[in-house]
Prior knowledge:
By secondary structure, this protein is an alpha/beta fold. It has a domain at 75-270: Divalent-metal-dependent TIM barrel enzymes (TIM Barrel), CATH 3.20.20.150. It contains eight helices and eight strands, in the order βαβαβαβαβαβααββα. The longest helix has 21 residues, at 88-108.
Amino acid sequence: MTDRHSVDHTSVTSLRFAVSTMVFGQQPLEETIPVAVAHDLMLEFSSGLGHHHKLENLYRTAGCARLPHNYFPAPEEPFLLNLASLNDQLWQRSIDHCHLGLDLASCSGAPFFSAHAGYCGDPSPDDLGNVMTEVHPELRQEYWGRFLDAVKHLGAEAAQANVKFLIENHVVIEDNVAAGDHPFLCATSEEALSLKEEAGPSVGLLLDTGHLKVTANSLGFDRDAFVEEVAGVVECIHHSDNDGIRDTNQALSLDYWFLRHMRKFGDVLHVLETRPMSLEDIFSQRSLLSSAAGLDPCK
């Protein structure tokens, strides 16, 4: 029987909250999962865990509420997941990985699987967070069409599995912008909304606030306006902070810029995606977000 406890994990009076496995640092999953079970924490399984042949089975058999995200489970041979690739082999490999993610979501009762938006080109995995090579922003429409085909296909599969497929907004550093052009899809509200309109109801947006802070600074747009524009299509939010230059996954403070928007998103899932911290600090971060959303900080 499919376990649906991760969907029904919280009530309307408490924050729908999860913690990325990256917040537990290098702690093995075999140790992290019992902690999550003991403290009733939902886990987002991320790609930072690295490849291990037991990862998929650990996810399927975990006793905690859980979500699969992006590169999880990490492939044996690293690759840059790119649903917009014009390389047929890489495009299909990216789709196949998302097939697995949707299956993991469905079997665990998770409401969705999420993956990053596509790239205009085929940069190296080593380029992530750095200057992108082998990119072609001048072919944006061609890459967009390829991306849309993949997302529509995966959205249809998600609907059949009774889950959703979410696309996460990219982080665009200033070094990857030339004369206003960049190779990242869905970095602007216009493209995020266009994707939702064209791909249908089984597709939504995972809003990463750290990515947005850097991208808005690099591209010169208003991050608060972005939030207002996409609010209706957001299904999940990744929370971390930074200096607006690099995505450094800092902990949240009372000065965290997104707190003023939390009341708009009391019903979506909120994932803490910061550098490693203690359990006590995790609960403090949850209370900060809950209070900002006008929800009970003790639940």
